[in-house]
Amino acid sequence: MVIQKAKIFLSSILLLIIVFSLGAGAQTLEVVKDSDSDYYGYKKEGQEDWSIKPKYEIAYPFNLDGIAAVKNEKGFILINTKGKKLTAHAYERLGWSDDADSTSAPLFYGKLIGAKSGNKWGVINTKGKEVISVSYEDLNYFVNGVTIVNLQGRYGALNTEGDEIIPTTFQKLRFMAGGLPLLVAKNDGLQGIINLEGNWILPLEYLSVKWAGKKLIAAMTVEGQWLFIDHSGKHFSDELYSNWKWYHKQEKLLLNRNGRFGLLDENAKEIYPTIYKNIEFTDSTVIAKSFPTLELGTIEGNLLSTWNCDSISYAGDDLVRYYTSGKVGIADAKGQNKFFNFYDEVGDFIEGQAIVKKKNRYGVCDTLGRLVIPVQFTNLKRMPTGHYWTLDQSNYPDVYDHKGKNLTMHNYDMVGEYSQGKYLIRKARLYGYLDSDLNEWISPQFKDAESFVGSYAVVRTNDYYGVIDLDKKWVITPIIDRLKTVSEGLYYFEDNQEWGTLGIDGIEWFRTDSATVESFEDGYVVMKRRGHFGLLTSKGRLSLSTKYDSLNLDYLKEGRVEMYMDSTWLYKVIDDREGEPTRSAYTLYDSVYNPSEGFTKVEIGERYGFMDYLGRLRLSCRYENVRDFSDGLAPFSINHKWGFINQEDVITLQPRYEDLYGLKDNMAKAKSRGKWGVVNKDGKTIIPFEYENVERSAFGNWYIWEKGGRMGIYIPGGIKGVYGKYDQITDLGIGFIEVKNNDKIGIDRIDGYNTWKIVYHSIQVLHNKKWICLKRKKADVYSVPL
Predict the structure, then answer these.
(1) How many CB atoms lie within 10 A of CB 23?
(2) How far apart are CA 611 and CA 609, in angstroms?
(3) Cα gap 735→715, rounded to integer Å
């Protein structure tokens, strides 16, 4: 046994000596070109004699195993340091199909080298034996004992024994960056990851797969979001991310989840969670700027979700629109993202669809951001029928249904607004109408036409205008030179070089040949003659003749118009037919105030009363002061006491208050014995006279201020909802109030029950009047050392 062990030891020593000698010999043999023959051979360093005679067209240096690749007249072969040929036959090329430079010395992988013959690749060992048959279009250098091969346009992978570990079934196959022992496979635009044992660690269902630092791999889903796995395929988290970036210098991974940033270190440990507005690097620190912390909840006090973003708003269909650094996303009330940064703007969802805008073009998407109508239109509107009216870049209109089908297909030059169940259309310069199902209700046949206003529409036959109704019948026969709708049932006409107004019954209300039409304003006609203005009522009658320097139409909805004549302010109740005011009537008063309920406060000799729009004194100027009429009564004062008078100058409430304001909903603010309260028109106390001040809210409730300025609130009817305990109260108009103490805000029910604690910086009631957005924490800046 001892002798046998000694023999084995001596044999090992001898083998080592031989290997060393070969290596040493290989290192001293140099490639030399013979100047006479132009062939290459080998010489030992410093010797003149040839160790291997020059007979090769190309020769490369020997490797450490004493093997060299050379080319003779038949092709490439392998030789040893004695010049012995080791390959059975010659090859077109030795090396690998992915060699960056095919003219440089080929690399051996251990005792293996790639060989090409007949445009096919295989692998031979240093004894010249084929390990992998020469049958592949491509064969790459081995990495971790694995080579990628291409067989008839499909890629797979083999080990050094030639065994198939990944079948040749993929359109693309590559090693994962970062030196990871993983392969990325691709078929039909989708990618997955296989380990070197041939096992899937990430299924073939992702758009892109990338190295993402020392510990993680990033994979993009078909929805365009990124997930992260470790090198074994285990998910890093359940979250999906919008984008990411690996910083090589800092060895940090920056994550972007729907516009909110987070940061991982080189070992995938969290430095900052993905809730920040921005993360930047300096030479020595990481600086993170946070979003404000927002809470979404119901007005009743139920928390729905917490947000880190700039702002949120109601987006319809119980969805939330959120903004991060100018980018918009859509999520549900629990904060589950639907889509982010698909569009520049997203409108409110109605029946699961919203109008969206991107690069000044409009389209329609569903609640997952998928397009129903492409973003390609310069204008797009949702119609009452549920259809979408569109206008393309060539100014062609079309109407789409909610499934994205074009229903009109450029059949019309114009598709007008929808009114009374009808679309106005134009084709080849003729007008007609479509019904709500986009069928031709009246085929294009009119020379001119308007949309329906109420039950009627103006149309023009060959030469004249008339009016049709919704039964397609003529209501005004087409015998008029020109017609235009002013308001429902009222029309402007031109006839025989005159113009005027007429009703749907054809009766003329006004006609003139001297004035011109300046404008149409909310159903009224403004006239102009020789630089002066006049007005026709919404019924077409003359209200003001054309004699005024200017008109103020801001109060048309209140039924009055203001005029100036020679710098004197005048006004008129538009539909009143008693006449027009005169400048001389107004100049009788020392002061004229704003009108209310047909009466205007006036002053004569520091006494007050009321006039009408004609300047007639209706309530004599015998009061110390008066306030505007409201609910048919006006506050007045005599002997420093206040009461109510009616429009007949009759005292309805004797003057007994120190101050009194106008009625609204039979309640008025009043003061007695230095304290404020609320009374009705009969003087009945609604809110007791106990407060430093009272004011009506915009929603009919009453704020109260107790001593020290603390606020409370009353409900109409004199019911105290909240006693004076807050710095500030704001009535939200939905049975709840915003309350504030020490610069912090909360929510109370109007009966005083607290639903949200006073811990917030701001509160916003969302558009659906059910949800509120509460800002708990303001934006801030943080930093940590690198």
Answers:
(1) 16
(2) 7
(3) 10
**Between vectors from CA 93 to CA 91 and to CA 94, what angle results, nearest 5°?**
95
| CA–CA distance, 42 with 492 (Å, rounded to integer) | 110
**Distance between CA 25 and CA 32 in Å, rounded?**
15
Per-residue pLDDT reduced to its tens digit, 671-705: 999 999 999 999 999 999 999 999 999 999 999 99
3-class DSSP state of 692: coil
Q: What digits encode the pLDDT tens for the residues 135-145?
A: 999 999 999 99
Find all residues with CB under 8 Å of 438, minimum gap 6, and list them: 387, 399, 407, 408, 423
Give the CA distances from residue 372 to residues 336, 348, 364, 417, 663, in Å, rounded to whole numbers and listed in that order.
22, 15, 5, 22, 54
Run of H or E residues at 16:
helix 2-28
Q: Which residues pair with 453 in a beta bridge?
A: 456
Residue 722 tokens read as 């909240």
CA gap 246, 255 in Å, rounded: 9
Specify which residues 430 forms β-bridges with.
Answer: 427
Residue 711: CA count within 13 A, CB half-sphere: 19
Amino acid identity for residue 421 in this structure: G
d(CA 647, CA 597): 10
pLDDT lower than 50: segments of the chain? 1-27
> Across the strands, what pairs with 492?
484, 501
For the beta sheet containing 711-715, the strands, ordered from the edge strand earlier in sequence to the opposite edge, are 693-696, 702-705, 711-715, 719-726
Element holding 583 (H helix, E strand):
helix 583-586
* Residue-level length of the chain: 786
What is the distance, to the nearest Å, from the Cα of residue 564 to the centroid of all Cα atoms in its chain?
48
Q: For residue 365, which amino acid is it?
A: C
648: number of Cβ within 10 Å? 8
Q: Is 140 helix (H, G, I), strand (E, B) or coil?
A: coil
Rg of the chain, C-alpha, whole Å: 45
Q: What is the C-alpha to C-alpha distance for residues 466 and 473, in angstroms, rounded to an integer?
A: 10
Q: Give the separation between CA 505 and CA 196, rounded to whole angstroms.
A: 90
Torsion from C-alpha of 271, 275, 280, 282, nearest 10 degrees? -40
Buried b (16+ CB within 10 A) or exposed e, 489-523: bbbbbebeeebbbbebeeeebbebeebebbeeeeb
Instruction: In whole angstroms, give the CA distance from residue 700 to residue 664.
Output: 9
Backbone φ and ψ for 97, nearest 5 degrees, come out as -70, -20
Separation between Cα atoms, residue 501 and residue 512, nearest integer Å? 10
Give the pair of three-digit tokens for residue 418: 């929808």
C-alpha distances in Å from residue 724, one per residue of 678, 694, 699, 715: 16, 11, 19, 14
Expressed in angstroms, the distance from the first to the final Cα of the chain is: 64
d(CA 779, CA 762): 13
**Residue 325: closest CA among 243, 246, 249, 265:** 243
Q: How many CB atoms lie within 10 A of CB 552?
A: 13
pLDDT, tens only, 464-477: 999 999 999 999 99
Helix (H) or strand (E) holding 20: helix 2-28
CA nearest 28: which of 45, 7, 11?
A: 45
**pTM for the structure as a whole:** 0.81
